Amino acid sequence: MMRYDFHLHSALSPCGDMDMTPNNIVNMAMLNGLDAIALSDHNATGNVAAAMEVGRSVGVKVIPAMEVATAEEVHILTLYPTLDAAEFVAKRVYEALPDILNQPEIFGQQALMNAQDEVVGYEEKLLINACRLSMEELFRLVTEAGGVFIPAHVDRHSYSVLTNLGFIPDDLDIRWIEVSRRVTDISAYLDSRPDLAHYSILQNSDAHYLEDIAQDGGELDGGFETLFRR
Ligand SMILES: [Zn+2]
Ligand SMILES: [Zn+2]
């Protein structure tokens, strides 16, 4: 049994707090008793390598990840077996983002950091827009890279597949879905949504602030490798 929180935003996400640095995130996760986390910034992986480096030094597994906003304005949590795989998909997503610059005073800074928490640059393109990739195109891209495609916070009313499409497309071989922390009783939630009963469920914090990182985390039987099993 491992404890996880696979949906976290760093200071690279404009809405992520500047205190969400690689060291702060990983150390807070360790203090909270988590075995594995994923850094899943909006449409970007620029701080993942630093977080993985910090994770290796303190013994917290950091899974490469990214939260992609698809053309349908649906948020998809994507997790990857390797940094290379994550960066490969991130490059395609970045190319598919509209050429709109961030306005830090409105949206917040998009800080790139190294493993010493030093700001090494700022991403100039606004990362919170929807990219041009459809859910289906993203699914193929992520799956071919060996990653996992997880519709994010499906219970929420904004940027969720159930709100924007009304259903989860069954022509995509989706195995995992994410529910937000607002769902306090997962089995009661699934009783109310029998169409979701055959999915495996992850529950993450979607933390944008250090204090929101999961206290105990979700429990994952069989370790994080089960995510990538096909
Ligand atoms: Zn989201
Ligand atoms: Zn998020």
Summarize the structure.
By secondary structure, the protein is of the alpha/beta class. The chain has helices at residues 22-31, 48-58, 83-95, 104-107, 135-144, 161-164, 186-192, 225-228, and strands spanning 2-8, 36-39, 61-69, 75-79, 111-113, 119-122, 148-151, 176-179, 200-203, 218-220. Helix content is 27%, strand content 20%.
What is the fold's blueprint, element by element?
Layout: E1 2-8, H1 22-31, E2 36-39, H2 48-58, E3 61-69, E4 75-79, H3 83-95, H4 104-107, E5 111-113, E6 119-122, H5 135-144, E7 148-151, H6 161-164, E8 176-179, H7 186-192, E9 200-203, E10 218-220, H8 225-228
Parallel strand pairs: 1-2, 2-3, 8-9
Antiparallel strand pairs: 1-10, 3-4, 4-7, 5-6
The structure holds zinc ion (2 copies).
Write structural notes for this entry.
With 230 residues, the chain is of the alpha/beta class. It has one domain (2-228): TIM Barrel (Alpha-Beta Barrel), CATH 3.20.20. Helices cover 27% and strands 20% of the residues. It has eight helices and ten strands. The protein has helices at residues 22-31, 48-58, 83-95, 104-107, 135-144, 161-164, 186-192, 225-228, and strands at residues 2-8, 36-39, 61-69, 75-79, 111-113, 119-122, 148-151, 176-179, 200-203, 218-220. Strands 7-4-3-2-1-10 form a six-stranded mixed β-sheet. A two-stranded antiparallel sheet has the order 5-6. Strands 8-9 form a two-stranded parallel sheet. Helix 1 (22-31) crosses helix 2 (48-58). The longest helix has 13 residues, at 83-95. The radius of gyration is 16 Å and the shape is globular. The model has no long low-confidence stretch (mean pLDDT 96). The site of one zinc ion has 4 residues, from loops.
